[in-house]
């Protein structure tokens, strides 16, 4: 997708408003403040006291704050926003910004539902502005190395992730119906798409809640995705799995025709195959600081980044398909999930330009996967 280019960089920093002053928002505030290619010019949050505390925490108590992101941007001459609101607010905040001519870098997921994610993809088209989802774990240099190893294994039969952690978050996560699948698994699902270079076709998922769980909803799940091209991606995880916990990235194994590749999520991947090692490109970026750099580069050059809304939407489709399979006990076709979300997006869209963009899609998968 094409987007408007903005002249920005270390010699002319991109002026940014961060929306959301919670714990993740404060991480983004520090990152934007430290980056030479960006200038933090304001903070938006419905809780103005939280915004002022965040500004004071940066040593900038006079930094402009407000409850409306677009208004703060207009008042400060901002050129872009970083959206770190709760998922339910992603759609209204990002839609308003794009419509006001502001490109957006957003936290995952794109939106709280796939239908609203498709609406945001169409809003990006209608406005001509870039909307990129941070999906920060994509930029892990070790993940890039692992992807290079998969390219040396020939055809891939199976890619697996095991994820076992036991965090006590409190708050909304412990009240969600599918906390692991909805709030965490998207990181692994997105990484699987990146590693395999292909998209999902179908999934069978079983979720459950162990008897000792402190979550109200299902904190554990196993899912098997059929990927285009024939590979299988298997995910097995728990958010109430104490003892011998995995990395936050999970542990990974790829099994191919020439051998296997292993990654513990924290250290360099290991290739177990009888092949001549090739040069493997590594990401020059890492974590949210890397995502921010790529966002600025994309605005400056016009290049379409990883995490652009159309490309990232299929990762959220994997989440919704897995949840539907867990709920129904049936194998679910991802195209059926995409079509249902598209129908809902068309039905609920109230902006004529966005609705026209949606209506112009030849198919959902065709619009998302060039």
At a glance:
The chain has 370 residues and is of the alpha/beta class. The chain is 40% helix and 20% strand.
What does this protein look like?
- Strands 13-12-11-7-10-9-8-14 form an 8-stranded mixed sheet.
- It has helices spanning 23-34, 48-57, 69-76, 87-99, 114-127, 141-150, 179-196, 287-301, 309-328, 334-348, 352-359, 364-368, and strands at residues 14-19, 38-44, 65-66, 80-83, 104-106, 131-133, 156-164, 200-208, 220-227, 232-238, 251-256, 259-263, 270-273, 332-333.
- A hairpin with a 4-residue loop joins β9 and β10 (232-238).
- The chain is globular and about 55 Å long.
- α4 runs parallel beside α5 and α5 (114-127) crosses α10 (334-348).
- The mean pLDDT is 95.
- By secondary structure, it is an alpha/beta fold.
Task: Provide the gyration radius in Å.
Answer: 20 Å
Q: Assembly state here?
A: single chain
Kindly report how far apart the N and C termini lie.
Answer: 9 Å
SSE sequence, one letter per element: EHEHEHEHEHEHEHEEEEEEHHEHHH
Count the strands? 14
Strand order of the largest sheet: 13-12-11-7-10-9-8-14
Structure classification: alpha/beta
User: Into which percentage range does the β-strand content fall?
Assistant: 15-25%
Low-confidence stretches: none
Largest sheet: 8 strands, mixed
Mean pLDDT: 95
Q: Count of helical segments?
A: 12
Helix content: 40-55%
């Amino acid at each position: 997708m094409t987007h408007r280019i903005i002249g920005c960089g270390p010699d002319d920093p991109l002026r940014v408003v961060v929306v959301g002053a919670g714990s993740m928002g404060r991480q983004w505030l520090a990152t934007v403040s430290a980056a030479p290619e960006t200038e933090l010019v304001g903070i938006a949050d419905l809780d103005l006291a939280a915004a002022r505390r965040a500004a004071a925490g940066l040593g900038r108590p006079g930094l402009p704050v407000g409850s409306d992101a677009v208004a703060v941007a207009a008042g400060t001459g901002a050129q872009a926003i970083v959206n770190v609101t709760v998922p339910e607010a992603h759609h209204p905040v990002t839609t308003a910004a794009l419509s006001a001519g502001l490109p957006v870098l957003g936290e995952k997921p794109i939106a709280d539902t796939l239908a609203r994610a498709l609406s945001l993809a169409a809003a990006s088209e209608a406005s001509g502005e870039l909307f990129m989802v941070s999906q920060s774990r994509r930029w892990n240099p070790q993940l890039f190395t692992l992807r290079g190893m998969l390219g040396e294994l020939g055809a891939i039969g199976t890619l697996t992730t095991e994820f076992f952690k036991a965090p006590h978050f409190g708050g909304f996560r412990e009240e969600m119906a599918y906390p692991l699948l909805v709030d965490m698994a998207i990181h692994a699902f997105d990484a699987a798409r990146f590693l395999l270079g292909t998209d999902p076709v179908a999934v069978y998922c079983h979720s459950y809640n162990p008897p000792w769980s402190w979550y109200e909803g299902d904190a554990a799940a196993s899912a098997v995705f059929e990927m285009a091209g024939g590979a299988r991606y298997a995910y097995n995880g728990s958010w109430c799995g104490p003892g011998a916990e995995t990395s936050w990235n999970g542990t990974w194994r790829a099994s191919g025709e020439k051998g296997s590749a292993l990654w513990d999520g924290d250290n360099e991947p290991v290739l177990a195959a009888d092949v001549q090692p090739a040069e493997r490109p590594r990401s020059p970026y890492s974590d949210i600081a890397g995502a921010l750099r790529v966002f600025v580069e994309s605005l400056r050059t016009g290049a379409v980044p990883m995490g652009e809304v159309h490309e990232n939407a299929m990762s959220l489709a994997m989440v919704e398909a897995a949840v539907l399979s867990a709920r129904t006990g049936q194998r679910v076709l991802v195209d059926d999930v995409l079509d249902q979300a598209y129908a809902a997006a068309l039905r609920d869209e109230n902006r004529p330009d966005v609705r026209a963009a949606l209506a112009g899609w030849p198919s959902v998968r065709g619009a998302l996967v060039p």
